[in-house]
Structure formats: C-alpha cells, structure tokens
Specification:
It contains eleven helices and 13 strands. By secondary structure, the protein is of the alpha/beta class.
C-alpha cells in the first residue's frame, strides 16, 4: 500500500485499530500548532496587517473547511453555467493539484478551445473545461496572477472570476465567499489537520457569506432536526445565521461509455452489480449515489484523491470486478480524465450535477447582487 493511501485511511478514520489510534495521537500536537498558525494568519488578514490583493472584476470564491470532496467543483460549475446563461463571461481559477507542469500559470481553456493537457492542468481543471464550454479555465498557485491572465483574455469589459477551492486563499480579495459543507460529514473527523480532516475550525464558517449544504439526499438522520423545527441545518445554525444556509443535492444526469462516449440509459444501473472505481475526496458518497439510483449491489474500489492510474491498477480493478461478478464498472467524470487510453476494461462514467433544492432563487439573487455591487 502506498504511504499516502495508508496515511489518508488513518487521518480520515477509515482505518481502525490501536496502531491507527497511536499515529493519530502522535499527530495531535501538530494539529495544535496548526490551529495556532491558522488563527494567527486569519487575524493578520482580518486586521489588514497582511494585505489582500484586488482584481478589476467581481470575484466569487467557492471553498470548504474540510479536506476532501464536499462538492466545491460541482458548485463552481453550477455557478459558472448559471452566470453564462445570464449573459456573463466567466473564468474559473484552480490551483491545479497534482498537475505535472513547471509553468506557474497554465491556461487550460481560453473559452474557445482546450489548450492544456491533463498533465499540465490536472484532472479537475480538465473536467471543468470539458463540462462548461465557453468558460476560461486557468490553473496556478498564485490566484492573483491567474486572475490577471483571465482579465487580459477578455477584450472589453471584464467578466466574473470564480475561485475553485478559494476559502483559505486569503491573499486574493473576493466579493462573495461560498463554503460547501457535506451534510453526510459536515465537520469531517472533527479534528484539525494533520491528525484529522479539518482545514480550519468550524468557527471559520462565520467568514462565509453563503453556506451551501451538499449531498442532502444522503444526509444521515443525526444531522436532521425534528419535524416540528424543519429539516436539516440545526448544527450549522449554531455557527452561522440560518438565512445564509442553502441546500443542494448531487443528481445523476448521464451514464456513458468512457471511450466511445455512447450514452447508456441511467436505468441500466437498476438491479445491477456495480464496481464503483474512483479517486476522489468523498468515495463513499459516490458509491451511495449509485446505490440510491437502484443498483442491487455496489462495491467500492477507492484510490487516493487525484490518483494517477497505472496498468497495475487496471489489473487490480479487473480482478476485483471478476471476484464480485460485476455487471458494470462505473467511475466519475473526474476519474475519467485519468482513465482515458487504457484498453481491456469497459468503464462507464456517471455524470453528476448539482441541484440547489432550497431557495435557488435566493441563491441566484445573491450572486447577481454581488456582481452589481462589486466595487470592481
């Protein structure tokens, strides 16, 4: 087992036992130091001692406080598509985790065509470029520089910039902070990195302008309120105003064969024995989505987030598929970027989109108000 896979299983709590508990215990003092560093950094930005850089256009940040998949990228895609439908030009900025490029800033899509490769851009950026036609997609650690690259690509008046995973990127001033919270695990393990999965204390949610609950269709009963007080959100309302809280779910929209791109009916999942293959931040949520869509049996074969697939991985996937007698091997659109080109296995890709289920009109109005009132 790779070291990053082993540590990830311990930090997330998937690996049990005395050894795992001991390792988390050894990491706990580092979490205390990390907590102090986060607090000091936030106070320096909050007081203005550390200055924020500005861009000459409205900036919307989508982020989280838990490491892993909370629905940031589907939210950024929803916002970009919505703003494009309203007539705005949009650019999405990502850091580009696990990309193999020494270039500080890489244009993945210029809004007309895809310019970068999967190695240069990373899987998430490539997925966005292919999912949102007409959207500029740029990756780079320095979001301010990446933002200026997008601004220079707009001929006349600037458009709207969306930061994917930008909540902790305090250096760039934004007009709207949206934080996604996975309703199945709202605060991760409850412990800060590196002993747990929290990037910031839950109190950091007070900085958010919008808190978007994701995957509410999978929400466990423990996170719901009683019927007399209405569904969901009670835990969050102790931290942020209830008017800031919106709800969403992940909805399967298409099932297609990876190499040919031929569509298959979503009903093909019904009653099937499925091997769910993914390297994402929330693998169990992906398996549950397939299960809720009618699969008879779902076996999860999870790899680390942003995993680069190799021939050996494909052999293991084949073996596992034969062991369980799988009818379908299903993966995510993000993983599809890394699985293209391998022969000998038929993968089906389940396309999932975000649907805002609570006050979508209010969510849209806040986006429009932010753009209208932006000093830029």
């Amino acid at each position: 087992m790779q070291i990053n896979t082993f540590l990830d299983s311990i930090i997330t709590g998937r690996r049990k036992g005395l050894t795992s508990a001991a390792i988390r215990g050894l990491l706990t003092p580092l979490s205390w130091l990390y907590s102090v560093a986060v607090k000091v950094r936030n106070e320096l930005y909050g007081s203005g001692i550390l200055p924020m850089k500005c861009l000459p256009c409205p900036v919307i940040s989508v982020g989280n406080i838990v490491a892993g998949g909370t629905g940031k990228t589907p939210t950024a895609i929803w916002i970009a598509s919505h703003l494009q439908a309203e007539g705005y030009r949009v650019a999405i900025l990502l850091r580009g985790y696990h990309r193999q490029s020494r270039t500080a800033t890489t244009v993945v899509s210029d809004g007309n065509q895809i310019c970068g490769s999967i190695e240069e851009s990373g899987d998430e950026a490539m997925m966005i470029a292919r999912t949102v036609p007409g959207c500029i997609v740029i990756v780079g650690k320095d979001r301010h520089a990446a933002g200026y690259a997008a601004v220079r690509m707009w001929d006349e008046s600037p458009g709207i910039l969306i930061l994917d995973d930008g909540f902790q990127h305090r250096r760039l001033k934004r007009d709207l902070d949206i934080v996604t919270v996975d309703s199945t695990q709202p605060f991760g393990t409850g412990t800060l990195l590196p002993a747990g999965t929290l990037r910031e204390p839950r109190s950091a949610l007070k900085r958010a302008d919008i808190v978007l609950l994701t995957r509410t269709q999978q929400e466990p009963p423990t996170f719901q309120r009683t019927k007399s007080s209405g569904p969901r959100s009670s835990v969050l309302e102790r931290i942020v105003d209830k008017h800031k809280i919106y709800e969403s779910r992940h909805c399967p929209t298409r099932l297609y064969e990876l190499e040919s791109k031929h569509l298959a009916p979503l009903d093909r999942l019904c009653g099937a024995c499925v091997l769910a293959v993914c390297g994402i931040g929330a693998p169990s949520a992906f398996a549950e989505t397939i299960r809720q869509h009618g699969a008879k049996q779902v076996t999860l074969f999870a790899f680390p987030d942003h995993h680069r697939y190799r021939s050996e991985d494909l052999r293991q996937i084949r073996t596992r598929s034969e062991e369980i007698g799988a009818n379908l091997i299903v993966t995510t659109e993000k993983d599809a970027q890394r699985l293209t080109g391998f022969e000998g296995l038929q993968f089906f890709v389940l396309a999932v989109t975000l649907e805002i289920t609570k006050n979508q009109m209010g969510f849209s109005q806040q986006l429009m108000r932010t753009i209208r009132l932006s000093p830029s």
